[in-house]
Amino acid sequence: MLSHLKRRLGVLTAVAVMAALVPAITSSPASA
User: pLDDT (tens digit, 9 = 90+) per residue, 1-32?
Assistant: First the structure.
C-alpha cells in the first residue's frame, strides 16, 4: 500500500511539474 501511495504521489508531482512548466515554456521567446 505504501508503494502504491508513493507511486500516486510521484504521478501527482509529475503532473504538477508539467502544469507549471508548460506555460513557462510556451510563453518563453526561446520556443517561439
Answer: 789 999 999 999 999 999 999 888 888 776 55
The whole-model pTM stands at 0.59
Give start and end residues of each alpha helix (H) in 1-32: 2-27
Dihedral sign from CA coordinates of 18, 19, 21, 27: positive
Cα 9 to chain centroid, rounded: 11
Burial of 4 (0-12, 13-18, 19+ CB in 10 A): exposed
Question: 15 exposed, middle or buried (CB, 10 Å; 0-12, 13-18, 19+)?
Answer: exposed
